[in-house]
Design a protein that fits this description.
It is built from nine helices and 20 strands. It is α/β, with parallel strands linked by helices.
Length: 453
């Protein structure tokens, strides 16, 4: 099914907002699998952005990992055989003023090399031109060169207009070019999926025999409860939706067919608008979440995803213009003014940035979640507890921590949704009591963070 996508600032730049919807079986268990070295949240949390519209200073509190939508036709215009002139694109964009500034500001950049607007039959010679472009891009921007501004490159975003065979041909050629240009640049697939794929993902058979040409497997997933016409999204832990299960399916495939290959979730997110949907037209039945729910669900998504065997998760999107339609209100800022989610994610990043997921103390769907995060360089631990539900009232719960762990808790505060909540004076403190059953406190759908020595 073809989806008409909302036009944000991307309209003027010739891009449409991304979409991924999985037609997968109902979600099952998403139990974490062990791995020797889990990433810290600083190396896990990422944000989807777009070139000239992104304001690097504004989003510094959110993350250090950026995923940029980079249309390759900007670089060579309408002629795929035209040699590139980096850092200048054919349309006049100066990548040194974007990627150069971003990396100087402390960000790490993943460039999604998009060829959606370049039809498969529009390449002069796809094998030759895709390879030449990949080599030129990696040679100029790769981590080994004079301008180490891009650490990884994705071969396509959601190339829905390309058949599996057409994508395979472009992937092979561009990956070969990227590898030749800079072997240190990570090569990432487009959005892929197991089983029956939707129009915006490619089946894993598209890279059969080409696993040596990619360093990372990529997936896009949104927590949809319903498809058209509402596009209603549920809370991330909802066992009735395929959000977590479809990611776990790719993890399981990776274990069986490409052991050790990292998996990145490069798109997930929630729409929240202040305006009602239009009375008529394709978005009249659209259903978003509230600003508060967006904040809760994004933070909880990062938490549950960190417990899975994936290496990075990139949130879609950085900014919106308050459009009540699919992907039209996914920003954590609205017209560059922070939403509650901006403050909630800032708190998560600041609090857990140097910590990695250690274990699930309790993970009861519909009941209670409590995860433990550890700091590699100190003995500090942080526990995060919340109700994995939507619309439930806060409740007094007992966290099944052992007596020793309970006695070492020295601070507890709830996820903030305002700038004031990020300050010591404005943070919502949470009281707790140590009981024979563990540590008792009030838990809600906004996670509580507990510090322990």
């Amino acid at each position: 099914m073809r989806i008409v996508r909302p036009m944000l600032v991307l309209v003027a730049l010739g891009l449409a907002a991304p979409l991924a919807f999985a037609d997968q079986p109902a979600a099952g268990s998403n139990a974490a699998t062990s791995r020797p070295q889990r990433p810290t949240m600083r190396d896990f949390m990422g944000l989807n952005v777009h070139t000239v519209a992104f304001k690097p200073d504004l989003y510094k509190p959110i993350c250090r990992l950026l995923r940029d939508y980079h249309p390759i036709d900007w670089d060579f215009g309408s002629d795929s055989s035209r040699p590139t002139t980096f850092p200048l694109a054919a349309n006049g964009v100066d990548w040194s003023q974007l990627y150069g500034v971003w990396t100087t500001s402390g960000y790490e950049v993943d460039a999604c090399l998009m060829f959606d607007k370049l039809k498969a039959d529009r390449w002069k010679n796809s094998a030759r031109d895709a390879r030449a472009y990949g080599e030129a891009f990696a040679r100029y921007f790769g981590p080994s060169g004079k301008h180490p501004w891009v650490s990884s490159a994705e071969v396509g975003n959601e190339p829905s207009e390309y058949s599996e065979v057409q994508y395979r041909d472009v992937f092979r050629s561009m990956a070969d070019g990227l590898r030749a240009g800079d072997p240190k640049m990570k090569i990432v697939t487009c959005a892929m999926a197991t089983g029956k794929v939707d129009a915006w993902s490619k089946p894993l058979t598209a890279i059969d025999g080409l696993h040596d040409r990619c360093d990372v497997l990529n997936i896009h997933r949104y927590p949809f409860k319903d498809a058209w016409p509402t596009w209603h999204r549920s809370f991330p832990e909802d066992p009735s939706i395929p959000f977590l299960k479809s990611i776990q399916d790719l993890i399981d495939w990776r274990k069986a067919h490409a052991p050790g290959k990292p998996v990145w979730l490069t798109e997930f997110g929630y729409d929240s608008a202040t305006k009602p949907p239009p009375a008529n037209g394709p978005w009249k039945d659209w259903v978003g979440v509230s600003d508060r729910e967006q904040a809760q669900y994004i933070v909880r998504s990062f938490l549950v995803l960190s417990a899975m065997d994936i290496d990075r998760a990139f949130l879609y999107f950085f900014n919106d213009q308050d459009e009540p339609q699919l992907h039209g209100a996914s920003g954590i800022t609205r017209n560059y003014h922070p939403k509650p989610s901006f403050y909630a994610i800032s708190h998560l990043y600041r609090t857990l940035g140097d910590y990695y997921f250690s274990r699930a103390v309790i993970q009861s769907p519909g009941g209670l979640y409590c995860f433990e995060y550890r700091n590699r360089s100190t003995s500090e631990r942080i526990y995060v507890a919340w109700l994995p539900t939507a619309g439930a009232k806060p409740a007094r719960k007992s966290l099944p921590l052992d007596t020793s762990s309970s006695k070492h808790i020295y601070r507890a505060e709830r996820m903030p949704t305002t700038a004031a909540g990020l300050t010591d004076a404005g943070a919502e403190r949470v009281e707790w009591t140590i009981t024979p059953q563990g540590l008792e406190l009030e838990v809600s759908e906004s996670p509580v963070f507990l510090w322990a020595h």
